[in-house]
Amino acid sequence: MSNLNIKLDCQFKNKTEALESVLKTMSNSEVPQKYLDSIFEREKQASFNLGNQIAIPHGTYEASKLLTESKMFFDI
Fold first, then answer.
1. Stretch 44-69: mean pLDDT, rounded?
2. Which of 7, 15, 42, 58 is catalytic?
3. Is 63 in contact with 34 (CB distance < 8 Å)?
4. How much is the pTM?
5. Are 62 and 39 in contact (CB under 8 A)?
């Protein structure tokens, strides 16, 4: 995993700010824009929130077909 996919000491005012930060990190790592757009669509269907300020944002199943490799991104 690239160190570019890990951001430490992040502080966010709200869920939207946190999600936008992760999306920016993902877009800098050549994740297809259609997949990034689908993340907001997916969030409308069900929350990514696991509790204790932990969330696992991900796109829709259909958009995931655009991905050519698995990647992980952390904003901590």
1. 91
2. 58
3. yes
4. 0.80
5. no
